[in-house]
Amino acid sequence: MVRRSDGQLPSAGTDHPTIRPSDHLLAGGANTAFRAISEGAAIALDAIQTNKLRSTLTILGVVIGVATVMAMASIVDGLRAQILNTIEVAGPTTFYVMRFFSQTPLNPDALPREVRIRPVLKPEEADAIGRLPEVGYGSIWIQLFEKLEHQGVRTQIVTVFAADARYMEIQGGTLLDGRFFTAAEERSGAAVAVLESTTARKLFGNVSPMGRLVRIGGRPFTVVGLYRTPDNIFQPPSQEIAAVLPYEAGRRFFHYDDTNALFIVVKPRIGVTVADAEDAVTIALRQFRKLRPADPNTFDLITQDQILDIFNKLTGVFFLVMLVLSSVALMVGGIGVMAIMTVSVTSRTREIGVRKALGATRREILWQFLVEAATLTLTGGLIGVIVGLGAGETLKRVLGFQSGIPLWSAFVATGVSVGIGLAFGLLPANKAARLDPVEALRYE
Questions:
Q1: Residue 421 to residues 30, 59, 427, Cα–Cα distance (Å)
Q2: Could you give the CA distance from residue 140 to residue 121 in angstroms, rounded to a whole number?
Q3: CA dihedral 381, 383, 386, 389 (to 10 degrees)
Q4: pTM of the model
């Protein structure tokens, strides 16, 4: 023991601080863990380079599974962004009145009784709603699905709206040429149409469609205007919005489903909340239909939030299915990792025996092989993230979606790939850790 100049023993807090043995153990433990991880990773990378084909086939399942998850997450994110942009264009306050709302379209030839007893929506009801002090816009629309044709050139089945001249206030868009139909044409149901610019190019090429005839569902209509939809409007394949007609023309000339395709569009007046506008519309429709206080509503109100909620449920199911399918590929990759690690343990039995003879513990051997398995799957996971992001971006460009990269899915996919390595590498790693050093040294 070293004494101070005054002959006293040093006390705590003096020039000779007490060093606890646990400090050395903690520092040594951290260094040992880091060394084990780095050695395991180096051995795994060396195994990949030595057995390129075997390692590539092993991690291929992980790459496919992670890439599928990434691509699907990118597409779902793009779809959601498009829906949100469309709601933003139409206005988050816009809501709809329908005869009966169902998440799946009803068969118009076999409607359930609860739908048949409800009256069909009428233009007079839309006019009454539009006159309410709480409402800034109220009009009845029809959604038609028809083919357009001009001189033998046809489109696929597209969406055609029969609405009024204020259509673009709700759906957005830019009038490029000509005009929308007049009030007289709306009332008389004149055979006039406003074409969407993309559809016009398909049918007329570089020729101006203004004043020319186009057949919609086999009926001739004169083109009086040309407009362009907003770039961010959500248009699923085969539901491209191609033309707008006067409501009365749609009602007279086309057969349509008055349950699924007929609805009243309502936009509250500026400064009025959606809830207040919905209450006013509900009261007005109940009075118009002479419903008693005890009678239930014979119509449904659908808000943008409800539409978004339905979309979230649909994409949630879609994404869940994709996760299940990609999990199969990840499972195959995990089994491959287990197989290659088992082969690795067998081929390196003598090496394991030497390490144990030199003092390596069972825990160190177990940790080495777990890190090696995790490194294999992490490599596959990182490659899968890159491939998945590329595939997702390509699909979004093809489909015309605009959204950012879902980084959360990259972290999740990478974490899952490492977890698969640890889970499926546990069995061969445990086998290596349990080897008897004497028997391992005798192994040929």
A1: 22, 10, 11
A2: 8
A3: -50
A4: 0.57
